[in-house]
Amino acid sequence: MEATIALRLPRDAASVPLTRQMLDGTLRSLGVEPQVRDDIELMLTEACSNVIRHAEPSDDYTVSATVHDSLCVIRVIDNGNGFAPGKDPEHIADAAPGAEHGRGLQIMRALADDIRFTNHRENGAVVCLEKRLRYAPGAAGRQLMAT
User: Fold this and answer.
1) Which of 37-59 are b and which e, b meaning 16 or more Cβ less than 10 Å from the residue's Cβ?
2) For 136-147, how does the pLDDT look when each residue is reduced to its tens digit (9 = 90+)?
3) For the Histidine kinase/HSP90-like ATPase domain, which residue ranges apply (predicted)?
4) Does the pTM exceed 0.70?
5) Domain residue limits, the chain
6) Which fold has domain 2-145?
7) Torsion of CA 94, 109, 43, 39, to 10 degrees
């Protein structure tokens, strides 16, 4: 079985908590362990915050999350101009220790089991985050995803 949620949201900071709560509620209902949900929540927050800060001139963005077996795949897709030249996430250096800004990519890389960036110049950018799930004993997700 596969479970998917998809949201098209305004590029507004108020959309981030809504997205987090919806995904966390879904994962909680499936019985995903709290530490894994916390990691996913933080990764999702950083990816959405980057869209809100950087995805000019887009007015909206899309978040989709798919759970299949023991894997959660999150895609955050903006409709902006894509990654600016010289700002390819694969080549951005980590922020300095204690930096107030610029740690989002570092956080996503540290928490995700896999992370991919796709740039569609003038058609936006896609951040794909994957996280292996652990279910609590007797969790509904363990039984549903096995079928």
Assistant:
1) bebbbbbbbbbbebbbebbeebe
2) 998 888 777 766
3) 10-130
4) yes
5) 2-145
6) Heat Shock Protein 90 (3.30.565)
7) -120
Distance CA 1, CA 118 (A): 27
The DSSP 8-state label assigned to residue 57 in this structure reads T
CA–CA separation, 55 and 70 (whole Å): 31
Residue-by-residue DSSP string for 113-146: SEEEEEEETTTEEEEEEEEE--B-TT-HHHHHHT
Distance CA 20, CA 15 (A): 9
Q: What is the distance between the alpha carbons of residues 27 and 140, in angstroms, rounded to a whole number?
A: 10
Q: For tokens 């101009």, what's the residue? A: 81
Cα gap 110→122, rounded to integer Å: 29
Tokens of 39: 């990691």
| Per-residue pLDDT tens over the stretch 28-83 | 999 999 999 999 999 999 999 988 888 877 889 999 999 998 999 999 998 877 76
Which among 131, 145, 114, 146 is positioned nearest to 29, based on CA atoms?
Answer: 145
The DSSP output letter for 33 is -
Place of tokens 């800004």: 101
